Amino acid sequence: MNDAANTDRWIRWLNTVQLVLAGIIIMAPTVWMVLSSFKPSFEVTAYPPTLVFTPTLENYAELTKTTPFLSYALNSLIVTVGSTSLGLLFGIPAAFAVSWTRITWPAILTLAARMAPGTLFLLPWYVMFRQIGMIGSYTALILSHAVITLPIVIWVLLPSFDAIPRSVFEAAQVDGCSVTRILWRIAMPLVASGVAVSAILAFVFSWNYFLFALVLSNGDTKTLIAAAFNFIGEGSTQWGALMAAATLIALPPLVLAALVQRWLVSGLTLGAVKG
Amino acid sequence: MSDSAATLTQDRQKLEMAALSAPAVIFTVAMIAFPVVYTIWLGFQTFSSTGKQSFAGLANYSKLISDYEFWHGLWITIALFVLSLVLQLVFGVWLALVLFHAKRLPGIVRSLFISPFMMPPVVAGMMWLVILDPSLGAANYVLQSFGLPSSDWLASPSLVIPTVALIDSWQWTPYVALIVLGGLQSLPPSVYEAAQIDGASPFKTFQRITLPLLLPTIVTAAILRSVDLLRFFDIIYITTQGGPGNASNTLNIYGFRVGFEFFNIGYASALMLTLTAIVFGAVLAFNRLRGAVAW
């Protein structure tokens, strides 16, 4: 009996060691990025690398002084909020209708964007947006990013709508409620948390998206992600500012994701896994 | 209520439902379906250096068959896909088992585990670019202090693809792990108890019971990762832009550069349609596999 308890303790200890090891591998690069962003410029490129240093904000000051970082950030915010709103506006009613009617093809159609390479859409968009003079406009960026947000909203919300008992709707129908009224007055309050999760996930993925803004933005509308090249200077001279930029760009999605971490994985699998 | 009145309500309801889906459907047709049809048409066009466009029949596709860069890109795409997928599935299942046996998982630990795949891939690229710098990077320093040889990572033509696979696996292994963990948690506990009573070793239990029951979940994770891996773009574009030389020029990177650096929209369309067919083919194949391992 004592032996079995010992083995048990051993196995648990071994498991903890593996967990800590995995945690270190997962966290170390990010920690290094954040540390480097607070290092004085001569220490960022020190070799051997240093762990103890006097933290400074000079890299962040340098970043805002030498690049239009804040206007890129504003562009990112405009495109992300715009495309998330559009995704919610189109996605919420569509998810409700798909859940109610069980006619799934509209939801599956939006998944095409999740599977095909972005360049497939970007080529015709580029030709079309150029013809109507929309390259570099916020409208073109918001529309293209809504292609990312729409399937996220629909597929995250579908299970939430599915979970509402049919009898709730049927009772409302007998009372003479129109479908639209049922959606806004009865269903929406019941799926409010699902809407919040879908909005945050849509925001994160729109914020993180690189390819479309690379081609469809111009100097005035460039998003933070598309401007990443501007921060990668030649050689290693700008590492401090580069890591400061990387830290600031990663901050909004990481904070938002931490808020919804419990519901995040089932949401990200777009209906493929029940969480 | 009379029959005709009931049909009337049903018809009205159908109409209202269609109206609710309409904005999403119209948007998707305008932004995806129509542009894809347009791409198919563009694939039959050539663009001269002055930007003049003319019908070229299958010229773009016959060019593709004799284009060394296309076959090279296909090989790079498949190598990166296989390497990354194997790494992420193997370590993802391992990590899921470790997390499963940890019993209780505080929210803060979960948040840390999701942080790699919630950060922009572009940021992951910037970060690893600094860490993997051949002369001043922290990675080589750590290796050297353990007495291991340093390496050129992203700057080495032979190592760039494994290195990119490592970066992507750092980002997405926790995601695979959390999906597999969900699968583990939904397995009935009775199967373990039965195995324990039969005196099966932990390894045997995993091999004979857990793994077969988990296969559908693992294949699902494989589908979700394949879709991203076959159209790999962000990390490569930010770190090497397909280099050194053409050593990391995946099909997606190659197609993008043909389209937006050399402005050969017709040929780029042919390349992208081919890549799309490969992605859809892989998804269909995995879907059949999922059907085969379902229980």
Automatic annotation (TrEMBL), chain A:
Keywords: Cell membrane, Membrane, Transmembrane, Transmembrane helix, Transport. The keyword Transport applies. The chain crosses the membrane at residues 12-35, 72-96, 108-129, 135-158, 190-210, 239-260. GO terms for biological process: transmembrane transport. One of its GO terms (cellular component) is plasma membrane. Gene3D superfamilies: MetI-like. It is a multi-pass membrane protein. The keyword Transport applies. Residues 73-260 form the ABC transmembrane type-1 domain. It is found in: Cell membrane. PANTHER family: INNER MEMBRANE ABC TRANSPORTER PERMEASE PROTEIN YCJP, MALTOSE TRANSPORT SYSTEM PERMEASE-RELATED. Belongs to the binding-protein-dependent transport system permease family. This is Sugar ABC transporter permease. It comes from Bradyrhizobium betae. The lineage of its organism: Bacteria, Pseudomonadati, Pseudomonadota, Alphaproteobacteria, Hyphomicrobiales.
UniProtKB/TrEMBL annotation, chain B:
InterPro entries: MetI-like, MetI-like_sf, Sugar_ABC_transporter. The chain crosses the membrane at residues 20-44, 74-100, 112-131, 265-286. It is a multi-pass membrane protein. GO terms for biological process: transmembrane transport. Its main location: membrane. Pfam families: BPD_transp_1. Belongs to the binding-protein-dependent transport system permease family. This is ABC transporter permease.
